[in-house]
Amino acid sequence: MFTTCASSVHPAPACAAAAAAMAWLRNWAHALHAAVAPNGVQVGHVAIGAAIGSEPQAIPDAIGPLYWELHTHRHEIEKVYLLDVAEWVVR
To answer: Pairing with 43, which of 3, 15, 32, 64 sits 20 to 30 Å away (CA)?
Structure first.
């Protein structure tokens, strides 16, 4: 399982330098999943677009189930947790 900021999926100008590296990691996770899934190995990616603990909805109990869903739904590779994107990009 890989975790990045949501700017790897939804580019944010304020995070451009880090977002480029995270987008590369996301792409690599997708390619790795395609290569190893036929052997029964799962690769997953969760992108988080929230300041964990700083916002009422951005708590581990809200984000954690995404990892479990990827683990139990092995045909999926990615989950994205986004709060209000406009708010998140401004911060």
So the answer is: 15
Distance CA 63, CA 88 (A): 16
**Rounded to 10 degrees, what is the CA torsion of 57, 62, 64, 65?**
-150
pLDDT digits (tens, 9 = 90+) for 29-71: 999 999 999 999 999 999 998 888 777 788 888 899 999 999 9
Amino acid sitting at position 85: V
Determine how β-strand 2-5 pairs with β-strand 78-82. Answer: unpaired
When divided into structural domains, the chain yields a total of 1
Cα–Cα distance list, 23 to 10, 40, 52, 62 (Å): 9, 25, 20, 23
The boundaries of the domain holding residue 52 are 2-90
